[in-house]
Specification:
Chain lengths: 210, 65
């Protein structure tokens, strides 16, 4: 449990203790001080607990551990350790180009105004499929929409290695096409090895020291 | 409102809030989608129901005898 979660649990524990006190000794509310205590215990603190708990759950839902907690995602997590730099997620994960504890979310959220909301709604759909639907085989899982270059450019735009890369400027206007997402980074035979979970059985894997 | 009338409602509101807060605390101990759903679909409604009941107990008019 990280510090933020521990603090939220501590807040909920305090709210619980006060709510328990007011519930077991409701006669306390006859005095003016008791009324204030009841207001704090049964309104302010529970409200604060709901708000901070929701916030914390939203944070936890962005963690790699959260995404990989469903069995069907195990191969995708495994693909992050492939010892082959042509695997785009693996090279990002292993070289810390994305935070390892937020590896999935960093690339699979839309960097738009409601990107996080859309991601969470998709997550609810995944949950429905996991427990109430038919779970597809890992290699049959597809993105809802083609991967938008915007998610790559969120980090790469303006970086020297991206802007000066000759392969991005082989033809006139190629860089502009990349930037306006008319030429996909992933499906233009450039960076097309992504998770490739159907190839994992023949792959070798990186074993981190710690 | 007389204490005899408001206190049972406060106890009921408190019980709902306690149940909801317990669910919320337990849900935070595990990083899993079901924990998030338990928080959202069980914990939050219980706490909100308790809070609403508490506020209603405060403003509910005394029934005529």
């Amino acid at each position: 449990m990280n510090l933020a979660t521990a603090l939220v649990v501590a807040l909920i524990a305090i709210a619980l203790a006060l709510a328990l006190l007011v519930t077991l000794r409701a006669e306390l509310t006859r005095s003016p001080g008791g009324k204030i205590l009841a207001f704090i215990a049964l309104f302010l603190l529970p409200g604060l607990a709901v708000w901070s708990g929701f916030n914390q759950h939203m944070q936890l839902a962005e963690s790699t551990q959260f995404c990989l907690s469903c069995h069907v995602m195990a191969d995708y997590g495994h693909s992050l350790y492939v010892d082959d730099p042509s695997y785009i997620p693996a090279v990002h994960f292993q070289n810390r180009l994305v935070p390892r504890d937020h590896a999935c979310y960093t690339c699979h959220t839309d960097y738009t105004l409601f990107g996080t909301v859309h991601s969470k709604l998709r997550g609810l759909h995944h949950l429905e499929v996991e427990y109430l639907g038919t779970i597809p085989a890992p290699d049959k899982i597809r993105l809802y929409t083609p991967f938008n270059n915007r998610e790559c450019l969120h980090c790469h735009l303006g970086s020297r290695t991206f802007e000066e890369e000759k392969a991005h400027q082989r033809k006139p206007g190629e860089m502009a096409q990349i930037k306006d997402n008319t030429l996909s980074c992933m499906t233009s035979k450039c960076h097309d090895t992504v998770h490739a979970v159907d190839t994992l059985k023949d792959a070798s894997f990186w074993k981190p020291e710690n | 409102m007389s204490p005899e009338r408001i206190e049972p409602r406060i106890r009921l509101a408190g019980s709902l809030i306690i149940a909801g807060l317990l669910v919320q605390a337990l849900s935070l101990l595990k990083i899993h989608p079901l924990a998030f759903v338990a928080f959202l679909a069980v914990g939050c409604p219980l706490v909100l129901a308790g809070v609403v009941l508490f506020l209603y107990a405060l403003v509910r008019p005394e029934p005529r005898s």
